[in-house]
Amino acid sequence: MATSSITKNFVVSATQQVELFANAIEESYQESLCRTPAPDLKITHLRGADDIKKFMAKRKKTNA
């Protein structure tokens, strides 16, 4: 994890330093979003016993 390498305290005091630091964090975050692929998930919400029964019947057919 990237944050585990940050072990020292540091002080950012000047306005320009604060802006540069904030911009660097934002850029790093944006880059990490581009590198991380979106998961390919299909979610089924089950509400009630009837939905569960239908889902399990479909599961049995698929896995048989």
Unreliable parts: none
User: Which value, in Å, is the CA radius of gyration?
Assistant: 24 Å
Helical fraction equals 55-70%
- Main beta sheet: none
Structural class: mainly alpha
Number of DSSP helical runs: 2
Q: How many strand units?
A: 0
Strand content: under 5%
Order of helices and strands: HH
Tell me, rounded to a whole number, the average pLDDT. 82
Overall shape: it is: rod-shaped
Distance between the termini: 41 Å
Could you explain the architecture of this structure?
- The chain is mostly helical.
- Helix content is 58%, strand content 0%.
- It contains two helices and no strands.
- The chain has helices at 15-35, 48-63.
- The protein is rod-shaped.
- The mean pLDDT is 82.
Quick summary:
With 64 residues, this protein is mostly helical. It is 58% helix and 0% strand.
Defining traits:
64 residues; mainly alpha; 2 helices; single chain
List the helices and strands and how they pair.
Layout: H1 15-35, H2 48-63
